[in-house]
Design a protein that fits this description.
Keywords: Disulfide bond, Immunoglobulin domain, Signal. The chain is built from one helix and 21 strands. The protein has two domains: 86 residues, Immunoglobulin-like (Sandwich); 114 residues, Immunoglobulin-like. A hairpin with a 4-residue loop joins strand 14 and strand 15. The strands form five sheets. Strands 11, 13, 16, 17, 18 and 21 form a six-stranded mixed β-sheet that branches. Strands 1, 2, 4, 6 and 9 form a five-stranded mixed β-sheet that branches. With 231 residues, the protein is mainly β.
Length: 231
């Protein structure tokens, strides 16, 4: 067993004429096994509701390069409280360390919007698939993925991994060696302290192989639908 240390002194940063932010729920230390999954929670209040980000070992870029890390920021019932969750799947030795949540709010806030949503694809069973999503907003929004209107199927699929690109606020969902349970309807969702936006549905179809002119050539065929983001 190994200890995942979490520092208690969460960081708060505010601009004048705004209230807070205040960290009201700090992440707790956890002990886990290699290969298991862990979840850290952080809650902050402020006006406007703050955006929450995460830091590992005082390095804000360490988590962005980890494909097994997922962030979800969700506003609670009132407009001044934000809750953030940090998920780490299939924990490795490199994941152990000190984690902090950081809360910020500021002026010129902008509701998140999907700039480019995922596109429909047709792939053969056993092939790889990549879905991408780009969002904008201020504070910078987070992006997470759902399949068939639920996030659980993705978290339980060992062949699916999400890689965020913090520089362009773009998220890539990679599915390796697609199996039957991988086919379905995918959407990306983006959140910040101002609101939430969800992309249109992108369908991952089973491709079909058929012969052309009897010469042994093959082609992948499937149904493609337009995908539009909305806020």
């Amino acid at each position: 067993m190994s200890l995942l240390n979490v520092t208690k002194d969460s960081r708060e940063s505010a601009v004048s004429d705004l209230s807070g932010p205040d960290i009201v729920g700090v992440p707790q230390n956890q002990i886990t096994d290699i290969g298991a999954s862990v979840t850290f929670n952080c809650t902050a209040t402020g006006l406007p509701a703050p955006n929450i980000s995460w830091i590992k070992n005082n390095d804000s870029f360490a988590l962005q390069s980890n494909p097994r890390v997922t962030f979800i920021n969700d506003p609670l019932d009132d407009t001044e409280t934000m809750q953030s969750q940090l998920f780490i799947t299939r924990v490795k030795k490199d994941d152990f360390g000190e984690y902090q949540c950081e809360a910020k709010n500021g002026g010129d806030a902008q509701k998140p919007a999907i700039v480019e949503g995922p596109k429909n694809q047709s792939v053969l069973i056993g092939s790889d698939a990549t879905l991408s999503c780009t969002a904008r907003g201020l504070p910078r929004p987070t992006i997470h993925w759902i399949k068939d209107n639920a996030s659980y199927p993705l978290q339980s699929n060992s062949r699916a991994r999400v890689i965020p690109d913090g520089r362009t606020n773009r998220s890539h969902l990679f599915i390796t060696r697609v199996q039957m349970e991988g086919f379905g309807k995918y959407q990306c969702i983006t959140n910040n302290s101002i609101g939430r936006s969800q992309s249109g549905v992108a369908v991952l179809n089973i491709g079909q192989i058929f012969s052309l002119n009897g010469r042994g050539k093959s082609r992948v065929r499937g149904v493609l639908l337009n995908c539009m983001g909305f806020s």
